[in-house]
Amino acid sequence: MGPLLRTVELFYDVLSPYSWLGFEVLCRYQNIWNINLQLRPSLIGGIMKDSGNKPPGLLPRKGQYMANDIKLLRHHFQIPIQFPKDFFSVIIEKGSLSAMRFLTAVSLEHPEMLEKASRELWMRVWSRVKFSSEIPIQYHAAAEKAGMSAEQAQGLLEKISTPKVKNQLKETTEAACRYGAFGLPITVAHVDGQTHMIFGSDRMELLAFLLGKLKIQH
Amino acid sequence: MGPLLRTVELFYDVLSPYSWLGFEVLCRYQNIWNINLQLRPSLIGGIMKDSGNKPPGLLPRKGQYMANDIKLLRHHFQIPIQFPKDFFSVIIEKGSLSAMRFLTAVSLEHPEMLEKASRELWMRVWSRVKFSSEIPIQYHAAAEKAGMSAEQAQGLLEKISTPKVKNQLKETTEAACRYGAFGLPITVAHVDGQTHMIFGSDRMELLAFLLGKLKIQH
Question: SUPFAM superfamilies this protein is in (chains A, B) (predicted)?
C-alpha cells in the first residue's frame, strides 16, 4: 500500500491575520506533506460569540503585541502582511460577514479559485492594497485578480445573499465550533483515524509531527 | 571581533505550563545559540491583573483545548508535562505567590541552582510528582532534589517572607509588564541594540530567526 493522502481542513476568516499565516504555510506545504488540503471559509464573529471569547486586539497590551508580532512574522514567513492603520474601523467595526459569504460563494461555484480569491482578500485587508468601502467594487477587483471573468465575478456577487451561501457559511462556522474553536484559524488534521484540532498559525511543526504518522499514546 | 554573547531573559511562573515548555527549549538551546540566558521568576497573577487579561483556562473551550494541546506537546517536546487532575484547586485557587517567592529567594541566594529548582517545582505542579499542600515539605523536597543541602533549603524557606525577596519578585513582575506582558512566559531578546519581546512558547523559530543577526526593517 502507498502512503495515505491525509485530509487537513483549514477554517479561516480574512479578518484574522494569523489565519493568513496558517493559510500560506499550508498552501506551501500541501504537496511536500502530501495532504488533501480543504479550505473552509468561516465567520470569526460567530465563533467568538459561540465560545464566549473576545478578539485579542481589544485588550490594549495584546493589541500592541500583535502589531509588533506581525511586523516580525512578516519577515520570518515572507508574507507581505501589515497591520492596517485604521485597524478598528477595518477590522472591528466592519466585520467580515460579506467577505466570508463571498468566499463561501466562490467555494461553492468555483472551488478551484478559492485559494487565490482568499489571498486577494487578505491582500486587501492586511496588506498594501487598500480595502475599499465600496463592497461590490472590492470583490470585483479581488475576483478578477484571482483569475475570474467579469461575468463570473458578477455571478458570485449575486449569490452572496442567497440562502444556500448563507447556510453554508453558518454550517462551516458551526463545524469549527464543534471541533472546539474559540478563534481562528484552526487546522483539523485527520490522521490514522484520529482527529487533531490545532489552534493558530504557530503549531505548524506540531502538525508536521502529527503527519509523521507517529501514534500518540493516550 | 568574535560573535557577541546576546542576552535573552525568560520571565516565567511555575503555574504556567507554556512557561515550562519555553524554559526547557531555552535551557536546551542556550549553548547552541550562544546566548546568555537570564531566568526571571515572575508572578503571573500580577501580570494578569496589571494587563486586564484573564487566565486562558477560565474559558471552557480554551481550557479543553489546552488539555489536548499539552497532551500533544508532551510528545513533541519530550517534556513529561501533564494536566493536573485537580486543575482548579492546584492552579487557580492555590496560586503561585509562595512558589515564586521561593524561586526568587533561590535566584538571590543560589542563582546557580535556579534552573534545577524551577524544574523541580514544575515537576510537582505539572507532572507526576504530587503537589503537596504542606508548603514547607514541598519546597524542602524540591530544593534537595535540585542539589541543595537541608541547611540551604531551610535558609531559603526562612527568606521567603523577607522584604528583599518580596520586593525582588514585585520588581521582576513589573519589569515583565513594562516589556508588554499580558501573560507568561515572555522571552525578551536583546539583539544588536534592539529589544524584542516574544510571548508564549511557540515562537522559538522566530527567536532563532532574530538571533540570526538579521536586521529587521521597520
Answer: Thioredoxin-like
pLDDT tens digit sequence for A187-215: 999 988 899 999 999 999 899 989 885 44
The ipTM (two decimal places) reads 0.88
Q: Does B61 touch chain A (CB under 8 A)?
A: yes
Give the pLDDT confidence of B153-189 residue by residue, as tens digits: 999 999 999 999 999 999 999 999 999 999 999 999 9
> Where do the domains of chain A lie?
6-211
**B174 near A CB under 8 A:** no
Distance CA(A83)–CA(A125), nearest Å, equals: 9
Nearest-10 Cα torsion for A83, A87, A92, A93: -140
Question: Which residue of chain B comes nearest to A74, CA vs CA?
Answer: B216
Domain B6-211 CATH assignment equals 3.40.30.10: yes
Q: Do B182 and A61 touch (CB under 8 A)?
A: yes
Q: Is A179 within 8 Å of A50 (Cβ atoms)?
A: no
Is B16 among the residues known to form the active site? yes
pTM exceeds cut of 0.95: no
